[in-house]
Amino acid sequence: MGPGPSDVHPRVLDALGKGTIGHLDPYYLELMDRMQQMLRDLFQTANRMTIAISATGSAGMEAAVVNLIEPGDSMLVCVNGVFGMRMADVATRAGAAVTQIKRPWGEVFTVDELKQGLAQAKPKVVGIVMAETSTGAWQPIEEISRVVHEAGSLLLVDTVTALGGIPVEVDAWNIDAVYSGTQKCLSCPPGLAPVSFSQRALDVILHRKTKVQSWYLDINLLANYWGTDRVYHHTAPVNMTYALYEALRIIFEEGLDKCFARHMRNHQALRAGLASLGIGYAAQDGHQLPMLNAVRIPDGVDDAATRSALLHRFGIEIGAGLGEFRGKVWRIGLMGYSSRANNVLLFLSVLEQLLAEQGYPFEHGSSIAAANAVYAT
Ligand SMILES: *Cc1c(COP(=O)(O)O)cnc(C)c1O
Q: Quick check: 170 pLDDT over 90?
């Protein structure tokens, strides 16, 4: 129940252990095609260039940035947590002239703030994180996309934690480049980074004056392997593809809407339970992510001792606060296969025990009752 990796579904672990075949084997190519189609369905896009980069989510970030940015290009990065900071760093390393706009941790960006930033920086690309895993803030994308495109810029969105937990509508929202990772709401081991590029983004990449700085992440080269040519580029992590394929099948067997509703319901139950203990959220009201519950550690409760007891006595992992939130916030994940009523109820009952041991005052049993009241509706 941390900020990822989430629990991996047993079917995904089984798939991971199947026999390794060649990365140009006809069966493997068929699997790639079918996985690409499921990724398009998950990103809600018709983008041809929808693939899985052979590395973790950060490589998805790097792929999106280095393909769109040439040295000297202007990029506007929205920073309200760790992953916005990372994107600004990646863009600087790629040679972009980076302008950062900032919000306090836990808050999200408004359209007006974007308009101001766009007017000043006149960026080629705007980068923003939809689900900030360090703060639990849910950034709306659709309205921001409109002003970004009115200004003639491209929109790059981090959906590492968002994808599979809340709706990500790449075509409806006009997103130009998007990336994710396998170990958050897809409940697959870490190791692949689904990405998708719009036709507008591909046209920009095609007309670059310089070569993409990264050979490994160059979308032009990757397109020759993922497209009909099937030219060897690098040896695909075959077994990770089995795993992601199975993870996506599980999501579509449940159905996207039901999957999102399940994430929301378990979040609401957890939130009601925590509220009854006097524990509130770190992210702005109305913008709290269902899969990443960043909550304020109550006064008088020992951060490290509580997390250690959760892990060593009960086998439950939750995340510590990062950066400004260190020692102040817990990050409780309800991602993918981990988003289950069992986990919510077990966590609340164990937390009550640990709070009672530390002399924290609350009405015993209240969190379970509050969570169950949500489940009863
Ligand atoms: C986890 C995460 C990343 C980085 O992914 P890795 O798989 O750790 O490389 C990037 N952005 C967000 C929002 C994340 O939650």
A: yes
Q: How far is CA 326 from the centre of its chain?
A: 20
Residue nearest to atom 14 of ligand 1 (CA): 160
DSSP state of 69: -
Task: Tell me the mean pLDDT in the region 322-349.
Answer: 97
Residue of the CA atom closest to atom 5 of ligand 1? 57
Domain boundaries, the chain: 10-253, 255-376
What 3-state DSSP class applies to 289?
A: coil
What is the distance in A from the centroid of ligand 1 to the CA of 160?
6
Which listed CATH number (3.40.640.10, 3.30.460.10, 2.60.40.3880, 3.40.50.720) goes with 10-253?
3.40.640.10
* CATH dotted code for 255-376: 3.90.1150.10
Distance 158 CA to ligand 1 centre (A): 8
> Would strands 131-132 and 137-138 be described as parallel, antiparallel, or unpaired?
antiparallel
Q: Band of the pLDDT at 214, cuts 50, 70, 90?
A: very high
Distance from residue 117's CA to the centre of ligand 1 (Å): 25
- Give the distance (Å) from ligand 1 centre to CA of residue 3: 9
pLDDT of residue 228: 86
Ligand 1: centre distance to CA 58 (Å):
6
Of ligand 1's listed atoms, the one at least distance from the Cα of 181 is 7
Share the mean pLDDT of the chain: 97
Pocket lined around ligand 1, Cβ cut-off 6 Å: 4, 56-58, 61, 83, 129, 131, 133, 158, 160-161, 181, 190
> Band of the pLDDT at 131, cuts 50, 70, 90?
very high
Are 10-253 and 255-376 equal in CATH topology? no
Average pLDDT over residues 38-51: 98
Atom of ligand 1 nearest to the CA of 129: 13
Model confidence at 208: pLDDT above 90:
yes
